[in-house]
Amino acid sequence: MSELWELFTMFFRIGAFTFGGGYAMLPIIQKEVVEVKGWSTDEEVIDYFAIGQCTPGVIAVNTATFIGYKRKGIIGGIVSTAGIILPSLIVITVITTFFKQFQHHKIVQYAFGGIRVGVVALIANTVLKMFKQVVKDWVCIAIFIAAFIFVAFTDFTPIIVVVASALLGILRGRNCIEAEGEGIE
Amino acid sequence: MIYLKLYFEFFKIGLFAIGGGLATLPFIKQLAGKYGWITQKQILDMIAISESTPGPIGVNAATFTGNITAGTLGGIVATIGVVTPSVIIILLVAHYFMKFGEARIVKSAFSGIRPAVTGLIAAVGFGVAKMSLFNIDRYNAVSKTSSIFDIKILPILDMKAVILFGVIIFLINKYERHPITYLIGSAIVGIVFKF
Hints:
Structural class of chain B: mainly alpha
Strand content of chain A: under 5%
Shape of chain B: globular
Oligomer: heterodimer
Mean pLDDT of chain B: 84
Largest sheet of chain A: none
Shape of chain A: globular
Helix content of chain B: over 70%
Number of strands of chain B: 0
Order of helices and strands of chain A: HHHHHHHH
Mean pLDDT of chain A: 85
Largest interface: A-B, 110 and 96 residues
Strand content of chain B: under 5%
Radius of gyration of chain B: 22 Å
Number of domains of chain A: 2
Helix content of chain A: over 70%
């Protein structure tokens, strides 16, 4: 199986099972890209999300394009993008053409009631996994808590969080890298 | 020509909506006023459908608007329009990221960003939890009509949802199946137990 086809089918699956916005796809990306394929590390996936948050456009699409480019260059980026948008195109086209009242059906509402709980569980599990890997000292814990409170309880754009934490990272950069380096080397 | 217009309007949205799919909604509302492509009621339908179908919300919203305006081809054109700027920008960013990603300043920036994005994702999960595990609207409605059920322990928690949540967390840690398995499972549980 060629890698381009693998990228396409993988992002098609991810597009078909992303419910409730780009960040909800993190558990599936983490499983497919990190655990199954071994194409990226958990940290790298988080970096892509950060970049996707701060650049124009849809985060899920940005992340797909990024991973595709990393594997297979420009063609890889385009193929991955096509993969992640195709399920939306098909589903929304079918719904707007044939089932105009789709979202009012009881069975759809029940299914989504269940799916939302599933999404919460998957995100909780993935956040825990990520937390263990990226939170290395008390400053990181403080950043995590501050970011959580800021995004959960205010209406400001999360871009501020990403930019501020980047500056913080640069300011204390030496310490961080030296501390990491000591651990690894 | 409507298709060209759709493409460029959604290209602009893709270019200026920073911060994810939900950021595209205000722009689409603006379009509704400018061209009369979709009505305010259809915008509400669009948000409900975008959120209750798979796929990124921004992409769903573009497909929906394009479809309503100019049929299937309109949907395709609007969707390609909304992702074109992303693809161009990300390809450039990715190119330079791979070139300079090892630079000390970039590395230290990301050492700050990683815990922040983890917190951000936790907040997104918390937002979904507020809707599904803690049914605050339902609680308010119940407390207004005031019945004996009010005195139940933690009436604010939707117990059905909490049980499903606990079961999934248990299964994830025990079996490590693909996340899609759990999503399909929770959809079925939702239908059977009327969530």
